[in-house]
Amino acid sequence: MKVLVATEKPFAPVAIEGIRSEIESAGHQLALLEKYASAAELIEALADVDALIIRSDKITADIIAAAPQLKIIVRAGAGYDNVDLPAATARGIIVENTPGQNANAVAELAFGMLIMAVRNMYAGTAGSELIGKTIGIQGFGNIGRRVAHIAQGFDMNVSAYSRRPNPDATMALNNIHCAPTLQDLYANNRFISIHIPSTPETRGSIGYDLITLMPQGGVIINTARKEVIDEAGLARALEQRPDLKYVADIAPDNADELLARFPGRVYFTPKKLGAQTAEANINAGIAAARQIVAYFLNGDTRFQVNK
Ligand code: 3PG
After folding, report:
1. Ligand 1 centre and the CA of 241: distance in Å?
2. DSSP-based three-state secondary structure for 240
3. Is ligand 1 within 6 A of the CB of residue 79?
4. Does ligand 1 have an atom closer than 6 angstroms to the CB of 226?
5. What's the pLDDT at 168?
6. What is the phi/psi pair of residue 47, to 5°?
7. How far apart are CA 87 and CA 83, in angstroms?
8. What's the rounded Cα separation, in Å, for the pair 16 and 10?
9. Which of 39, 240, 290, 295 is deepest in the core (most CB within 10 A)?
10. Is the CB of 109 under 6 A from ligand 1?
């Protein structure tokens, strides 16, 4: 089988070596398309491909239509909002992710950004420390759990909100306060770290009403997706509450406006880099390769997201 790794934002070379070894030792062929500049390039590369490994690369219905032999797409990472699932499902193509594999990388970045925010973007003015402060974690999956663990290492008080039915048992076991509502989470935590997927339900769901509930000196750290924020609502909240800050891994659509209006209170990474570490690339890339090998070997679809 021919496996294509198509990444607009390439994996670390050491991860590619690992992927190659998994794929070739199982008797398959590996092709690479890195830093491609257009969908047309990807479409051309897909003509004779049986399996595809991607990152945040957009896989639209048109791209799927251009891959007549494609049987499986593995998103090496957590969020699969970049793949047109109905189009894949209609063609009988398996779509998988590699949950948890880059969780630590994202969680560490959340703290890097939080520290930068509370130290006033390293401008040299007196900031504040994390010890003893409250952090609220929105979304308690692999990344949220890792953020909680790291926060406890900083001696912070940790709360979390999850839409899952019974997360409180895990939380209680780990000394994490289970916020009964999202409003409660925002109202009672000085720092909020967002770890929810982008879905029709979550898109634009964090806006003025929630953000302005935050205590004085609040910071929102968004290492999830820009789409979960109601950007106009965020701008209104920052205008009304000069004490609040917003730091995000990838710029919102109104980044220029926010940077101009709220200097020193907003920060955006130049491209999504939460999972951009050698370790996360190795973990997620090799997991993706193994999942493809397992699928072709014995039909293993354990990580399928379009069941
Ligand atoms: C994910 O959903 O796994 C992260 O957002 C990482 O995305 P990336 O692979 O594009 O860095």
Report:
1. 31
2. helix
3. yes
4. no
5. 78
6. -55, -40
7. 9
8. 9
9. 295
10. no
Asked whether 77 lines ligand 1 (CB < 6 A), one says: yes
Closest CA to 220 of 186, 253, 256, 260: 186
Question: Is residue 190 within 6 Å of ligand 1 at its C-beta?
Answer: no
Q: Which two tokens stand for residue 137?
A: 């974690």
The C-alpha atoms of residue 2 and residue 4 are separated, in whole angstroms, by 7
Dihedral over Cα of 152, 154, 160, 162: its sign: negative
As a whole number of angstroms, the distance between CA 17 and CA 3 comes to 14
Q: Which two tokens stand for residue 232?
A: 């106009």
Tracing tokens 């490994």 back to the chain, one arrives at 53
Question: Structure tokens of 134?
Answer: 């409250």
Of 301, 294, 272, 278, nearest to 9 by C-alpha is 272
Please give the sequence-ordered ranges of beta strands (E in DSSP) within 115-241, or none if there are none.
134-138, 157-161, 177-178, 191-194, 219-222
For helices 278-298 and 13-25, the axis angle rounded to 10 degrees is: 10
Structure tokens at 298: 């014995």
DSSP-assigned letter for residue 30? E
**Residue 275 in contact with ligand 1 by CB distance below 6 A:** yes
Q: Whose CA is nearest to atom 11 of ligand 1?
A: 275
* Amino acid in the structure at residue 166: N
Over the chain (307 residues), what is each successive 10-residue block's mean pLDDT? 98 98 98 97 98 98 98 98 98 98 98 98 98 98 97 98 83 91 98 97 98 98 98 98 97 97 97 97 98 98 97
